[in-house]
Amino acid sequence: MKRTLALALLIAGPAVLAAETPMDPVLRERASRAIDAGLHYLRYQQSENGSWSDSVGITGLALRAFLESPRRYDETDGAFITRPVEFMLRHVNDDGSISESMQNRSYNTAVAVVALKATGNPRHDSVIRNAQAFLKGLQIDEGEGYTPEHRYYGGVGYGGDERPDMSNQYMALEALRASKLAEDDPVWERALVFISRSQNRSESNDQSWAGNDGGFTYMPGYSPHGGTGSYGGITHAGLISLLFAGVDRNDPRVQAAYDWIRANYTLEDNPGAGEKQGLFYYYAAFAKSMKAFGEVEVTDTSGARHNWRNDLAAKLISLQDADGSWVNEFSPRWWEGNPHLCTARAVIALNLALAD
Amino acid sequence: MGHRGEWPACLAVTLALAATGGFAVTAGEPPSAPPALALTVGALCSLLGALLAPRHPQPSTPHRASPALSRLCWSALVGVTGAAAAALLAALPPRNALSLGAGITLLTLALTTAADALGRRFGASGAAALVTALFVTACATPLFLGPLAELFPERRWLLNAVVWVSPLSHLAPLLDFDYLRTPWFYEHARLGGYRFGYPPLTATAAAVAALAASCHWAARPVHPERIDHS
Prior knowledge:
Distance between the termini of chain A: 37 Å
Strand order of the largest sheet of chain A: 1-2
Structural class of chain A: mainly alpha
Order of helices and strands of chain A: HHHHHHHHHHHEEHH
Distance between the termini of chain B: 14 Å
Helix content of chain B: 55-70%
Number of strands of chain B: 0
Largest sheet of chain B: none
Helix content of chain A: 40-55%
Oligomer: heterodimer
Low-confidence stretches of chain A: 1-19
Strand content of chain A: under 5%
Low-confidence stretches of chain B: none
Strand content of chain B: under 5%
Radius of gyration of chain A: 21 Å
Structural class of chain B: mainly alpha
Mean pLDDT of chain A: 92
Number of helices of chain A: 13
């Protein structure tokens, strides 16, 4: 009996360990080195003014990459951390936004809030509070004359009165969550209206165009990749948004999004986007949503099991350039021709993969 | 005022432009979308102001400063009228209304100067048609040159040049309005996925000054017999 038990453990042991171990140790070590190389690249690419690419958005992402890395840099580590913080603080506007330009105010402010919060420095609390109020104010609701029946209701756009989209929505919700917006704030409920209307799930989406694959499209009725089709980056953004808004992981909307991810599991491209557009946006959103969803492995619809951490790390390591940077060599759309942006996103994704 | 013979035709073109521009900016938005409406009003006022402006076809009048002063006063009047109309129709905050008024004034000044200069070569009717055509073409630049700029996405100056050629791009930031990310433009101009910037008011003023100077130079009377005295 003892021999049988020992044999069973010998056979089953590695499988059990593989299922419970978040990441292959060898890959973890290589990913750690890739993070260090990426941060080394970013450190020597920093501008005199403390920014990366003179952009609050890219600076916020790069700063976050440093702060959340396994080495846990903070403001006591030197000017390479304090100068980007100061750059962002120099771009705080009277309305609470943190942005160097009129356009992208929502995205820039959201990224800056997450980065400033990640410093853990209470000196930034008032800036974060004002920025949180700015982001809340951007949500399209009755204040702008919209009723819940309108397809834009509950959404957040680039920062003007243009139109909301799921990308800015998820960034804003991430910032609101990071800055500890109250769970019972009506922002979350309104956000769910817009999120549901961006999902291809006719049971919970009242729009006539809604399909039923469970994935997300850019905004109600439109995808930049044609029609109203679901695609990877935004489906992960949608899944995170649902979870940020307090929806249970067993909710059918969450399960439908996860099923789309299972059916389209890949790290070779941003599925549904074509020409590898938004590839690094996809990797960052993939890491965030998989981490938030909490499964070690993804079982795709053909039954194959994937350790997403291993797959993500291996893919990103294979794409890293010799100087430590990453760049989307296939498509510069969505600013991904910029290596500062892609490197920051790749490091953020690896940081999440390595985090327990 | 402008020559009576050509302005009804120009008005028709302008109204068609307003309808097209209004549709393009507001498509997908509720009808009350304030900045889109204000932008349309601003562009329309600027063009109408130029088409209906007092004409100064002779550059060598005894009082050379007066046409420039007249244009400036007229443009300021159009700016005030346009800002008031936009403020009423779109419920603009005072800060945006003032900025828009300054923008309309500059744009009208540029278009009026161009119309006067062109009028010396092509006559008032030809100038009105040309100014209208140039204005419409410039407004549409992000639509037809956007794909070209997409080929060189890391050249921000090229992306900005495509954006800055459009008069709409000079008025929109005065309204804090990212019009290139409205649904219709986002879909058709395809520039929204790249990094571009809108021109600051100082750049608009510099462009108007440069345009005015070049118009004066280009319209100098080289062959007096070609001057249209109509």
